[in-house]
Specification:
Radius of gyration: 19 Å
Number of domains: 2
Structural class: alpha+beta
Distance between the termini: 32 Å
Length: 230
């Protein structure tokens, strides 16, 4: 059995095969993936491979995998993985961002887990809540702005974003920002402050909450098994 092989030692071939058996390439999870999650979490205490595979399974838990009962039975394993991932972040590891995304999934924040990057060249697309025009939100080395994207001219009529202050943040945004600050991730923290700040529509000049509008458009419709984990 592959799980027994990886439990016995660092068998790279067995780990690769186990990943193929538990996770589909199309961002879905096999039933065996949820069945194996508790054992993977136990292994994750001393294995980066186990931690990564467990995180991958968790990030894909919002998909239509048809394994609600199996995933609902993983609540204790998810809670344990949450603690483990948080401790790992505190060590400021080289895999900080992937671990941060896994931790977001462990908190039920699947949409942020799927799209969050390192804010060097990040773009988020959403509809203005007032005039419905598609607005591009850019947060990266080339600027932090809202704009209308023209496929010939690029981002036009740019408006500077208005980052949230630490005091203004609440809920998930406050947790994300606070964790990044705690771990000395200044670029990530600054990007989160902008992501959870306010943008201006270049078309109608209305101001809106970026994260709230993006969440409304992209929050997955979770089944009960996944929702219970949030």
């Amino acid at each position: 059995m592959l799980l027994e092989r990886v439990e016995a030692g660092d068998d790279a071939e067995a780990w690769d095969e186990l990943g193929r058996r538990l996770v589909l390439e199309c961002d879905l999870v096999f039933p065996a993936g949820f069945a194996a999650l508790p054992r993977l979490v136990r292994l994750a205490r001393g294995s980066a491979r186990a931690r990564g595979l467990a995180g991958t399974i968790l990030r894909r838990a919002a998909g239509h995998h048809g394994c609600d009962d199996l995933f609902a039975g993983c609540a204790e394993a998810v809670a344990e993985l949450h603690e483990l991932l948080d401790r790992h972040l505190g060590s400021r590891p080289v895999d900080y961002l992937p671990t941060f995304r896994d931790l977001l999934a462990a908190r039920g924040q699947y949409h942020w887990s799927a799209v969050l990057e390192d804010f060097t060249d990040d773009f988020y697309h959403l509809a203005c809540p007032h005039c419905a025009v598609e607005v591009t939100i850019a947060i990266g080395d080339h600027g932090r702005y809202s704009a209308i994207r023209d496929w010939h001219l690029g981002d036009v009529d740019r408006r500077d974003l208005r980052p949230a202050s630490p005091e203004e943040l609440s809920g998930t945004g406050r947790w994300m920002y606070g964790t990044a600050v705690r771990d000395g991730q200044e670029t990530l923290a600054d990007g989160i402050a902008h992501l959870f700040g306010r943008g201006e529509c270049p078309r109608c000049a209305s101001v809106f909450d970026i994260a709230a509008e993006y969440t409304c458009a992209n929050l997955p419709v979770l089944r009960q098994g996944a929702a219970d984990q949030g």
